[in-house]
Amino acid sequence: MAGPLAAEAGASLVRHLRAVLAELEPELLGLYWPHRREFNAAAALVAAANSPNVTHWRFALPFAQRAPVQLHYRAWQGEALDTVDDCGIPCSVGAEVLPDVVLVPCVGFTRAGYRLGYGGGYFDRWLALHPDVTSIGVAWSGSELDEHALQPQPHDLALTLVVTERGVV
Fold first, then answer.
1. Is the terminal CB of the chain with fewer CB neighbours within 10 Å at N or C?
2. Domains (range + CATH), the chain
């Protein structure tokens, strides 16, 4: 998707995401840095947080570590990133923190809240260690998968909800 349709879809996704976050009122929101064609929630929400009449949000970005395989979040103030984690993804140099709400990118997702990622298991491991954290999948509606196309594995955890440009799943 490109051009005006992409901009319209992105604006719609931001509206739905902001509505969910306004209801949840996170103390610390864990974002992700976009990879490939993932929606850039970080840029959209940092821009929104700097808009007038918007509740101030505090942010964190993940840091993926290859050995041992794990993920943790670091405080982020929205500044430009010049550091990368062990997977080559831009990350913050801030202090390690624990978000109460996290956005999780979805390459694919089901209505039951299961997601398909890039196969590293970083988010799955982190979510398993933090079951009280609200997890919000962020995806394009076209990436919704039939329940039979994505069979959850024993280690998979369903997300709390998924937000797309068409609304909340």
1. N
2. 4-168 (3.40.50.10420)
- Could you tell me whether strands 167-168 and 115-116 are parallel, antiparallel, or unpaired per DSSP bridges? unpaired
Exposed/middle/buried for residue 75 (C-beta within 10 Å: 0-12, 13-18, 19+): middle
Measured from the Cβ of residue 162, the count of other Cβ atoms closer than 10 Å reads 26
Residue 100: DSSP 8-state: S
Could you tell me which residues come within 8 angstroms of residue 151 by beta carbon, excluding any fewer than 6 positions away?
none
**Arithmetic mean of pLDDT over the chain:** 91
Residues 6+ apart with CB under 8 A from 81: 33, 61, 90, 91, 92
Which residues, other chains included, contact 27 with Cβ-Cβ below 8 Å and sequence gap of 6+? 58, 100
For 131-143, the pLDDT digits (tens) are 999 999 999 999 9
Closest CA to 110 of 154, 144, 142: 144
User: For the residues 30-40, what does the mean pLDDT come to?
Assistant: 89
